[in-house]
Every structure is written in structure tokens, then in C-alpha cells.
Design goal:
148 residues; mainly alpha; Arc Repressor Mutant, subunit A; three-stranded antiparallel β-sheet; 72% helix
Length: 148
């Protein structure tokens, strides 16, 4: 890769996360504050497990950048509240899957509904053309980053 291209790419990638947090983060904060049922890490866990359908604690730990001990405590708390359950893999008894309960699924759906409303409000400041360009760009970024 050409050095100038790499440097520009690097600077834009470093700029993306803080920009995302600044512009879209408040939407997540508002949705998180709607109820005080779960804490931020618990909400993130419910959303992540629901998105994937099921996850092992190792997979979840990598996604949330959490150590095993903290993650076990987090999963235990969600299990006690009735949002997730653990199930041993039928083919590999060493593996345990974390899945959402019906309560967890309902909670996740409501959070997504509220977040979708927040995003609609944020995106209403853009023209239809800009929304289309944003959509196409994000699809490309997700597909490319997924290959890394």
C-alpha cells in the first residue's frame, strides 16, 4: 500500500470512533437511561447476544473487551435477572452457549425500537441523497472491516 494512502486511511480510521461517539453516542445514552433495569455493560451484552443469536463467553468477551472473571459476573447477573440463560453444547460439552430468554428478547427489541427512533431523528438533518450515500458507505465499511 502506498504510504500516503495508508497515512490518510490511518488518520480517518482514528478519527472515526471519536466522531461516532460524539455524533451518535448521545442516542445510545438516551436509550440506556429510559429505564434503570440494566447497567450499560448488561445492556451491551443483551444487545450483542441477541444480535448473534447465541454466543460463548469467549466470543462475548472478545466483542466486549472484557476479562473472563468480569464477564462471568456480568453473565451471572443477567441470568439472575432472567435476561439470559446458559446451555451446554450438545456436540461439545466443553462449550456453553449464552442465549436470551424471552424477557431478554423483548428487552432487546424495545431498546432497538427506541434506538431506531433516535437514529431517525439524527438522520432527519441529512438530505435523502446524503442518507443514501451514508448507507452505501457504511455497508462498504462493514463489509471491508469484517474481512480484517
Amino acid at each position: 500500500m502506498e504510504e500516503a494512502l495508508f497515512n490518510d486511511l490511518f488518520l480517518n480510521m482514528v478519527q472515526l470512533m471519536p466522531l461516532f461517539r460524539k455524533k451518535l453516542g448521545p442516542a445510545y445514552d438516551r436509550v440506556d437511561r429510559v429505564d434503570k433495569i440494566l447497567k450499560k455493560n448488561q445492556i451491551g451484552t443483551v444487545m450483542m447476544v441477541g444480535h448473534n443469536g447465541q454466543m460463548t463467553s469467549t466470543m462475548l468477551g472478545k466483542c466486549l473487551d472484557m476479562k473472563k472473571g468480569s464477564l462471568t459476573t456480568l453473565i451471572d447477573s443477567l441470568e439472575e435477572k432472567g435476561f439470559v440463560y446458559r446451555e451446554r453444547d450438545k456436540k461439545d460439552r466443553r462449550k456453553t452457549w449464552i442465549r436470551l430468554t424471552e424477557q431478554g428478547q423483548n428487552y432487546r427489541q424495545e431498546k432497538y425500537r427506541l434506538l431506531k427512533q433516535e437514529y431517525a431523528e439524527i438522520l432527519s438533518n441529512l438530505s435523502d441523497k446524503e442518507v443514501q450515500e451514508l448507507h452505501e458507505s457504511i455497508v462498504k465499511v462493514v463489509n471491508i472491516v469484517d474481512k480484517l
